Amino acid sequence: PPRTPPARNVVDFATARRVLDARGPGRMVPDLSRITALMDLLGNPQQDLPTIHVTGTNGKTTTTRMIAALLSELGLTTGTFTSPHLQTVRERIQVGLQPIAEEDFARTVESVQHVAELVDATGEDVTFFELLVAMALWTFTDLPVDVAVVEVGMGGRWDATNVVRGDVAVITPVDVDHRELGDRRATAGEKSGIIKAGGRVVVGEQDDEVLAIVTAAAGEVDAPVRVFDEDFGIEDRAIAMGGQQVDLRIGERVVADVFLPLHGPHQAENAAIALAAVATFLGPSFDEVDDDVVRAGFARVDSPGRMEVVARHPTVVLDGAHNPHGARATALALDEAFTFRNVVLVIGCMADKDLPGIVGAFRDVVDHVVVTAPDSPRAATVAQMAAVAREVFAGTGIAVEEAADVAEALELATGVAGEGDGVVVTGSLMTVGAARDVHLPA
Questions:
Q1: Domains of the chain by range and CATH?
Q2: pTM for this entry
């Protein structure tokens, strides 16, 4: 059974946040030694926790939230771990689809931090992300929840979340994103590292090379694989008010007329993956799940910062696309789901991303550009963003403006937008989070 961490004086949320931030949110160390030692000291509670583990390049968070919503509709208590957060770190740890309360978060930081200090004393300090993972897994087993749905932070093989059981490994579409993971082939290998013996695998749409790597990794541990378009998929899809209507197939079964309150074909694929993950987790008992339960589960899905409308007059849409693959999906969804007269793009990215690839994805769908920078040492500067944008939009007649921060960029963009126009904020989840702070303060 989990070992109760030593009692400490309960601190408030602000203090707990400072304790967590002191570990450096951007610091990464690619091995499992510290998280393994930390979970050992906590009694390895995650070993008794049924888990669906989600990785991929794009769609991880939304797919994780969809899976949790479906399982909750079945009456199961879910624990959900996602990253990064948009506005408050509490978003990362959710129980029953709700972020952990401030007092519970503070109490868990205090307890797990005390154990982490024992690991710190033996070598390199536990990282910010590792402490959060331990906090989530401790919370989920302490309550307890019936099932955890856990999103990988980066990669998979060396990600701190890879201490989970991984009853089902989910791999959403894989593309190049983080330089640390290498090219597409290397990235696929890292993400396949979450597949475990005794587990089962659900794979989203992939190119042939990636699919071969994933299926080979599954074969090495005799893990059965369900593949998009072969074992599950989308039978039909139509645009609907506030989202889309989809018919989803799992095996020979089709769940028709599912309303999905999210925009874009990529979200329909995420829904198919989520349904396959739940069906794989439940096994034969999924046959007893009524179609209406599935419909109700998807109808309650939300995914903040993913094609999210946060204002009207003008309409402001937030989408956290942070790589070319995601940006292309955003551009397609904008063109498909909205009938804007003109689109004003507000964009700010991290410096280590493919800036021309991200900005270039919007070349044919926007009419005015405002570049900015979120408040992060990793962000590309406004000057860097402006240089890239002016090169991408050269010869189009599209103006590129500069704003010192996201709030100023929104003010410029909404000032330019007229009746029937839309503003889309994208390029990074940090940019989207800052825009959400303006329109929907936490």
A1: 13-299 (3.40.1190.10), 308-439 (3.90.190.20)
A2: 0.94
